[in-house]
Amino acid sequence: MKKIKLGFLSFTFALLALTSCTNNEPVVQDQQVTEESQSIVTSLNQLSQQVDPNGNFTSQSNPAGNVVFDFCFDFVYPLTLSYNNGTTVTVESLNDLVNVILNSNQELFVNGIAFPFDVEVYNEDTDAIVIVTIDDEDDFIDLLDDCDFDDFEECACYEVYDPVCVEITDPNGEVFVITYPNDCYAACDGFDEDDFIEDCENDYYPGDLFCFEFNFPLDIVIDGDTIVTVDSLEDLGNAIYDVYDFNFVYPFDVTTEDGIETIEDEDDFEDLLEDCYDDYDDDDPYEECDECDDEEFDPVCIEISTATGTEIVVFPNICYAICEGFTQNDVVEDCDNNGAQDCDENDIVSNLVECEWYAYSSLLSQGSELDMTFNSNGTLTVELEDDTTISGTWEIVSNPSGELFMSFALAEPLDAISNLDWTVVQCGEEFILLESNNEFIALEKDCD
User: How far apart are CA 242 and CA 62, in angstroms?
Assistant: First the structure.
């Protein structure tokens, strides 16, 4: 039986981590040998951006649920720090370190550290967490340079639950799994589909979809042999955020909608989580949206506010608009007169060849998507969901009245698209809508 994965519960507990740390002041010890360090100031400032004012790690900044991946490295504790008034503090854990950060101010703040100290970092060549010794300030500067904090941009990932898992080796040589909510978050940490393992969905379950509650207190085992008693989800999050694997001490009780249930072993717990995942699948809030392409092509227009004013967005039918959060009251009348009159043939061509595009159509099976790459020489590459690649051609032409038409030449199974002439009913930098009788093709730009 596999170990309980760190990523198994990380998405919940990353949000709950360290909520109790603000209740204690840092413990000031006798003066020890430290050196002033701009790098420790930079590190603590950067780490402070990972947490909210209550010490909770925010979900978007911490999608992996592990400090090495969400921040860049983890200190090996204990750690000796010094304040600007000359006093020192011994930090025994990540909880203590965030406690120090939250209780710092302009009058009292950490500006020194005792060298040497160790950190845990991820080695991309070996897919392993390794321990590195930082001997002096120059080593510390090099570490921060590798982190690229100055060039960091927060990942703007779409909020879709489609988990991907990556296997990592911890400093003890044990393999554990990091689970990301989707491949976008994984890509932000440098992973791609070649790094993902199979059967990920059974190793992870997002916190806001739990179909049960733990009955506290319960005991967990961290780092192989340390037993910790936790009294709440907050305690559980504090205990597991900066460890690489943990397991429960069985048996323990949970409360489900059917009452109290005793979990005797790991098999019972995995069965419980699989049942939860099945429930999530059955209640998928986006499932109804997958059925929108079965409905008749009947464009509706929605006026939305932008940074530069307002713009009209056209949806293939009201179903798609509702799935994006709009209502019938948001629909603009006379939709046929909106959108296409500002389409420019040259702009469309420029936008199409700039990036890849997602395409969905009433001619495709429900929920299917195509990845389309348009080339300036009129050739086209289409990747199907089974990774099959089809080559073809495309063309845009206009008539004297200014209407724009698009045509394709594609082999099976996309020949149905080639058999129709498509009218451009909306165009923009991010979205293009094509219509032919009661059929449609919607194109959405994907520069990432």
Answer: 12
Q: 175-184, 283-292, 301-310, 376-385: which has the minimum mean pLDDT? A: 283-292
Are 71 and 212 within one domain? no
Is 300 exposed, middle or buried (CB count within 10 Å of its CB: 0-12, 13-18, 19+)? buried
Residues 77 and 140 in one domain: yes
Are residues 269 and 354 located together in one domain of the fold? Answer: no
| Residue 226 burial (10 A CB sphere; 0-12, 13-18, 19+) | exposed
Residue 72's contacts (CB-CB under 8 Å, 6 or more residues apart) are 121, 146, 147, 149
CA angle 58, 59, 62 (to 5 degrees): 85
Instruction: For residue 220, give its domain range.
Output: 207-287
| Residue where a domain terminates, one of 287, 322, 351 | 287
Q: Which of 423, 427, 419 is nearest to 436 (CA)?
A: 423
Q: 344-379 pLDDT, tens per residue? A: 788 888 889 888 888 878 887 655 778 899 998 999
Q: How far apart are CA 190 and CA 192, in angstroms?
A: 7
Angle (CA) 159 163 165, round 5°: 140
Whether residues 153 and 194 fall in one domain:
yes
| Residue 146 domain-assigned (yes or no) | yes
Judgement on whether residues 280 and 429 belong to the same structural domain of the protein = no
Residue 316 lies in a domain: no
223 and 274 belong to one structural domain: yes
- Joined together, the tokens standing for residue 260 give 């109290």
Give the chain's end-to-end CA distance (angstroms, integer). 38
Domain count for the chain, please give it.
Answer: 3
- Is there a single domain that holds both residue 194 and residue 273? no
Q: Do the Cβ atoms of 396 and 348 come closer than 8 Å?
A: yes
Neighbours of 42 (CB within 10 A): 16
* DSSP state at residue 176: E
pTM of the shown model = 0.53
Question: H helices within 283-371, ranges in order?
Answer: 287-290, 318-323, 345-354
214 CB contacts (<8 Å, ≥6 apart)? 233, 236, 252, 254
**Do 277 and 356 share a structural domain?**
no
pLDDT in tens, 192-233: 888 998 877 545 444 444 578 889 999 999 877 789 898 887
Q: DSSP code of 216?
A: S
